[in-house]
UniProtKB/TrEMBL annotation:
SUPFAM superfamilies: PLP-dependent transferases (SSF53383). This is Histidinol-phosphate aminotransferase. It holds the Pfam family Aminotran_1_2. Transmembrane segments: none annotated. It comes from Thermobrachium celere DSM 8682. Residues 2-79 form the Aminotransferase class I/classII large domain. GO terms for molecular function: pyridoxal phosphate binding; transaminase activity. Keywords: Aminotransferase, Transferase.
Length: 82
C-alpha cells in the first residue's frame, strides 16, 4: 500500500482541518505574514550563500543549489521519512 501513497499525501482529518483553517480569516492573515517572513529569510540566506533563486508569492521558493535535482530530492526525502 505504501508504494502507491506519496510521502506528502494528506488524510481526511488533515483535509478537514485545512478547510476549517481557510475559513478563519485571522489565521489566514497570520499565516500569510509568516509565509512572507519565511521567504525573506530564505532570500537573505540564499544571497549570503551565493545561490540563485526565483522570488515567489507562494509558500515555496525555487532555488538553484548547483547540484543534481534528483540527488537533492532523494536526500531531502530520506530526511523526511526517517
Amino acid at each position: 500500500m505504501n508504494s502507491v501513497i506519496g510521502p506528502f499525501d494528506t488524510n481526511l482529518i488533515a483535509q478537514e482541518a485545512g478547510i476549517a483553517a481557510l475559513k478563519d480569516e485571522e489565521f489566514l492573515k497570520f499565516i500569510v505574514e509568516k509565509n512572507d517572513e519565511g521567504r525573506k529569510y530564505y532570500y537573505k540566506e540564499f544571497d549570503r550563500l551565493g545561490l540563485n533563486y526565483i522570488e515567489s508569492q507562494a509558500n515555496f521558493v525555487m532555488v538553484d543549489t548547483g547540484k543534481d535535482d534528483m540527488d537533492v530530492f532523494n536526500k531531502l526525502l530520506r530526511k523526511v521519512l526517517l
